[in-house]
Specification:
This protein has 363 residues and is an alpha/beta fold. Helix content is 32%, strand content 20%. The chain has 13 helices and 12 strands. Strands 6-7-8-3-9-10-12-11 form an 8-stranded mixed sheet, sandwiched between helices. It has a 4-stranded antiparallel sheet with strand order 2-1-4-5, with helices on one face. Strand 1 and strand 2 form a beta hairpin. Helix 3 packs across helix 4 and helix 4 packs across helix 6. Bound molecules: adenosine-5'-triphosphate and magnesium ion.
């Protein structure tokens, strides 16, 4: 289903810089929940902030999206949710939810389609749960309202289901939580309420963008455990955005590493983190390996990432790359299929460099 024979992908060669053909595949046997192919997003007067982003998420699969601040993670998520900022625009590419007869091209979706899909087939949780809730309505009312509107439940059935869902996401005494207003709940409780709302209509895909960043470490671990459990019990596909590689290592089967608006490396989490092949991922890992790396953020590599709209003829990581060569600056960098579900966007890997770059760097 995600093979190179897919008609969408036939135009692309495995080392073509338009990386549709090498889109971070789901495994052959797995039903596909989401395919993003050649996505380009611009903001504020056509500044390109996300370019040539391609990836897939399989049913029940969890995929981690990491990268420094400003690398385009949130815009990618918002493009999938049809929630770009006013100045944002999908210039190119296709976002497809599901596969086969029930699939929907989200890039062509109008308002009515979005009303059907958002919440019902795709749910989302963000960093600041309070700002997504109405302060003047009880949280139970807000969840029950969603169940009435999207699932057509009666008032009574919606209220009962809301209490059940609050219990399911680990809120103690869900019957009293139902009657509370957002300001009466802690950050961790509010995030559980938002997760309950996000999963209430049993979506296929849950997008969690820094959903645990603002929470303390213990609550963060509890929320991640909850997401893992929901993925198993509901066969949810999960796109998890985080700055924390340890969170990806614990939670995600596959990882996408973003830099300067592009995915520069992707593959099974254990393999990518155990043997990173792109110099940027290697830099991330070396930063992360200093001392106790588990909770370090990614924002400490010397130099600045390119700004949105910054045009560069070659590799966008070149100005910070320890192994940059003239060829890196010459033109668009192809995505190389490294085998076993691994992809990387680096000139030297495209040449089929036989010496693993990680060894060269540490020599
Ligand atoms: N509404 C907007 N107007 C102008 N530029 C924007 C807007 N939203 C995002 N950008 C720019 O697009 C780029 C990608 O932003 P995005 O929010 O996707 O990054 P991110 O990877 O989610 O970063 P963070 O880790 O800080 O959340 C950044 O350079 C950002 O400044
Ligand atoms: Mg963000």
């Amino acid at each position: 289903m995600s093979s190179l024979s897919d008609p969408d992908l036939q135009h692309a060669h495995p080392q073509d810089h338009r990386s549709g053909a090498v889109a971070g595949h789901v495994e052959e046997h797995r039903e596909r929940t989401l395919r993003v192919s050649g996505l380009q997003v611009s903001v504020a007067d056509h500044l390109v902030a996300v370019q040539d982003v391609s990836f897939e998420i399989g049913r029940g699969e969890s995929v981690g999206l990491v990268g420094e601040s400003g690398s385009g993670k949130t815009l990618t998520c918002r493009a999938v949710l049809g929630l770009l900022p006013d100045s944002g625009h999908v210039d190119e590419g296709r976002i497809t939810l599901g596969e086969g007869a029930g699939s929907v091209d989200l890039t062509a979706a109008g308002r009515a389609t979005w009303d059907e899909i958002r919440g019902a087939r795709v749910g989302a949780v963000f960093q600041d749960p309070a700002s997504y809730l109405n302060p003047s309505l009880t949280v139970g009312h807000q969840l029950a309202e969603q169940l009435r509107v999207k699932r057509g439940l009666s008032r009574r059935a919606a209220n009962l289901r809301a209490v059940e869902l609050f219990g399911e996401v680990g809120l103690h005494d869900p019957g009293s939580v139902f009657h509370q207003f957002p300001h009466q709940l802690s950050g961790g409780m509010l995030q559980r309420v938002l997760i309950a709302i996000a999963i209430s209509c049993e979506p296929d895909l849950l997008i969690a963008d820094e959903a645990t960043t603002a929470l303390d470490v213990v609550i963060q671990a509890e929320i991640l455990t909850l997401l893992r459990r929901l993925r198993e019990t509901h066969r949810l596909s999960l796109l998890l955005v985080t700055h924390d590689l340890a969170v990806v290592a614990e939670t995600c089967e596959r990882i996408l590493v973003m830099y300067g608006g592009q995915i520069v490396e992707s593959g099974p989490t254990e393999e990518v983190l155990g043997d990173p092949r792109h110099p940027y991922t290697q830099a991330l890992m070396s930063v992360a390996s200093i001392g106790s790396w588990e909770r370090r953020t990614l924002d400490v590599i010397p130099g600045q990432p390119p700004a949105a709209g910054e045009q560069m003829p070659g590799c966008r990581f070149a100005p910070r790359c320890p192994s940059v060569t003239d060829r890196c600056l010459a033109g668009p960098v192809p995505v190389t299929d490294l085998g076993e579900g691994r992809l990387a966007r680096c000139v030297r890997l495209a040449d089929g460099a036989t010496t693993p770059i990680s060894e060269e760097l540490s020599a």
